[in-house]
Amino acid sequence: xxxxxxxxxxxxxxxxxxxxxxxxxxxxxxxxxxxxxxxxxxxxxxxxxxxxxxxxxxxxxxxxxxxxxxxxxxxxxxxxxxxxxxxxxxxxxxxxxxxxxxxxxxxxxxxxxxxxxxxxxxxxxxxxxxxxxxxxxxxxxxxxxxxxxxxxxxxxxxxxxxxxxxxxxxxxxxxxxxxxxxxxxxxxxxxxxxxxxxxxxxxxxxxxxxxxxxxxxxxxxxxxxxxxxxxxxxxxxxxxxxxxxxxxxxxxxxxxxxxxxxxxxxxxxxxxxxxxxxxxxxxxxxxxxxxxxxxxxxxxxxxxxxxxxxxxxxxxxxxxxxxxxxxxxxxxxxxxxxxxxxxxxxxxxxxxxxxxxxxxxxxxxxxxxxxxxxxxxxxxxxxxxxxxxxxxxxx
Length: 395
Fold this sequence. Notes:
The protein is 39% helix and 14% strand.
């Protein structure tokens, strides 16, 4: 899908955010949370950002966010949306070659729920093309296996897809900074693979998305890694604390919402606990960062007013290393799971649902960019500005 294919009301929406001048920030960051099949939402968001010429200087991701990050950083700007679309169209192909579900007319939420559940059953039985496939025969729980095959699915199709769609030489040239998070299985420590420190390959992206027991651990230089979402499902802290500190416009694209309604049945309860578990307390982390940045800013202004003899004290030098006047806009776009999606929300890869997720991300990003304050530097004494479409941008 290209912008030339779009007409009517949606085309009118596009005009509200095209040809945006580079915002007055030293760095534009794109932060992509993990969430499996929900990751198509991030593709829609990125399409809207790309149409607005808001190309990131730093892309960071966890799990499916790592895959989307690689597709963005590993392609030139003019090819990124096409590569994202290609990936999501591949993985949303029916695993058994024929998909009869699109022919089912959806008239209500009940029908929609059962169509989604049937589709997710197809994923469980047949995998997702270009992503993962079932192991045949399946492993038995007590049978000893090596870490790279200790899973119900084989992730080798993802390696082949990444090698075809991602230019790893481009990632390693570090024109766009790139970071993905994973967990060391042996130590339990969270690790970031960053193209300023590591030579990035398909295995680093796969490590970030190696969620057990579905997918096997990924070996990198003798160590084995699991999905970064086991410890933290968002790399926001990595970007905000990354050196050197810079004025930053960060688009934080979450796939699980911390807030939601009280469940009405066991399926909704299971889906709700998944939302809470993987939302990674994004808002709490932002509030903590905002307080820390206020203290850094206050320290900077206080040090400027100290007499020269006091500035030479070791304590003043220590504080000077942490003080700065940097400002941050943190723009949250959060996918809110629909009631009919249920607990299979992150492994329901049907084409119909992929298109719904993509369109939802696109629409949310367009509406977000209609608010001029999103791209403006914080004013007065505010050094960290936050915006959440659901909370601050109701239209």
